[in-house]
Amino acid sequence: MKKKIFYATISLILLSTIAKILSFIVRIYLARTLSLEAMNLYSLAMPTLVFLIALAQMGIPTALSKVIAQSVNPLNGILSSFILSLINNLILITLFLIMIPFLSTHLFKDIQISSILKSMVFMIPMVTLSGLCKAILQGKQHHAIACASQIFEEVFRLIFLIIGFSLFLKDARSLATTAMFSVFVGECGSTLFMLAFLFIKKHPLKRRQHDLKKEHFLEILSLSVPMTSARLIGSLTYFLEPIIFLAFADPVLLKNAYGIFNGYVLPLLTMPSFISVTLASALLPTFVYEKKHNHLEKAKKIFYMMSLICLLISLTCALTTYFFPSEILQLFYKTKEGSAFLKNSSLPFIFYSLQPVLSSILHALDQSKKALIDTLLGCLLRLAILALLTPLLQENALILAIVASMLTTTFLHALRVCWSLKKLSLTSK
Predict the structure, then answer these.
(1) How many angstroms separate the CA atoms of 106 and 108, rounded?
(2) Helix, strand, coil % (nearest 5) of the chain?
(3) HSE, side-chain direction, 13 A CA sphere, residue 82
(4) Would you say 48 and 180 are in contact if contact means Cβ atoms under 8 Å apart?
(5) Distance, C-alpha 429 to centroid of its chain
(6) In whole angstroms, what is the distance from residue 112 CA to residue 45 CA?
(7) How many CB atoms within 10 Å of residue 345?
(8) Residue 362 class from Cβ within 10 Å (0-12 exposed, 13-18 middle, 19+ buried)?
(9) How many other CB atoms sit within 10 Å of the CB of residue 161?
(10) Where are the alpha helices (DSSP H) in 120-213?
């Protein structure tokens, strides 16, 4: 059994590594193709996309994977999740289309960003469908297939970018819009792969009867609301971050700094997290399943092993970026812009890769509300530092805010997980 768990974990890491390499190739291609103005527009719009994705999914995929893992007949949970997602998407698309003129002219104060925001509308239904497909696969323990879908996502996105950049206009707005629309194309590729697997495989879900009731909707909502609240808080913070950051000093200077940090530095700092996100997605249904069948020690060993793997990989990457910041930026992006940002942020980001795994365990232990509090405290600290210290520290306030927020949330999560596992061990004896 230990060998099975080990080999399954290694396969997930290998698939995630391939997907991340492809993702990084996409980032490098974007960094080398987009002009600085286009990169700034793309970076400013990206927090809005992240916020939209959180609103579109509303935590329903994560809740669905947990319901499937602990349910004998999960079809009711799947149907209720699809219905709730459809209603949510219709409302969200309508509201976002109404808000686009206000966002571009009043908040971002750049009319060029309007077309980039419009390209995000297509993402809303596609990212929702993709999330639900992944939830079904993960809930039924098909983690490798869910992970492999990310490879298709990056391949589709890269092909579209190569074709798009060669065909469309080369002005900053067109380049940034093409880059943003490529996210939608990538999600299409990922979703097609997962749907093909679900339809080709003779899945037992097809042969089961459903009896959809109010309780099934309430079960999904009771799990998704606390989960999505934490994600929404983080996404809203990310959305407000450039607005607050640009409000307290020279907009041109800070817009360039924000574009450099988010376009070049942050992808390198968060690079190891692709493994922890993949492992965390697999950990939630696996931990719930083992816990339900009274295999607590086995569940804890899986958690400890995944946490250690994440920490070791993150440590290796952090030390590399700390000692060779200029060389790495030159290697990937053919620029040394942001080397000071990268060096100063590297070591604290060792702990960033633990956050998804810790959050996943808190959800599995029915501690979603406490995880929400931790996230809220970290995000409030982030916005407070930006608002209070940007006039004094300028672009360095952005680094301080992100690092302080990340460490606060991660260590609060760690304390809660240790306490909850200790309490669970005592009650199970």
Answers:
(1) 6
(2) 85, 0, 15
(3) 11
(4) no
(5) 37
(6) 11
(7) 26
(8) buried
(9) 20
(10) 123-139, 143-167, 172-200
Any idea what the Cα angle at residue 323 is, between residues 319 and 326, rounded to 5°? 125
The three-state secondary structure class of 250 is coil
Q: Is-above-0.70 flag for pTM?
A: no
What is the spatial distance between Cα 308 and Cα 315, in angstroms, rounded to a whole number?
Answer: 10
d(CA 128, CA 110): 29
**pLDDT tens, position by position, 289-325:** 666 766 777 778 878 888 888 888 889 989 999 999 8
Encode burial over 45-57: b for 16+ CB neighbours within 10 A, e otherwise: bbbbbebbbbbbb
How far apart are alpha carbons 382 and 429 in whole angstroms? 41
14: tokens are: 């290998």
Residues with Cβ within 8 Å of residue 31, at least 6 apart in sequence: 39, 263, 264, 332, 333, 335
pLDDT digits (tens, 9 = 90+) for 191-231: 999 988 888 765 544 445 556 666 667 777 776 776 667 66
Determine the Cα–Cα distance for residues 12 and 16; give it in Å rounded to an integer.
6
What is the Cα–Cα distance from 181 to 122, expressed in whole angstroms?
Answer: 8
Rg (CA), the chain: 21
Sign of CA dihedral 62, 66, 69, 72: negative
Tokens of 96: 């976002």
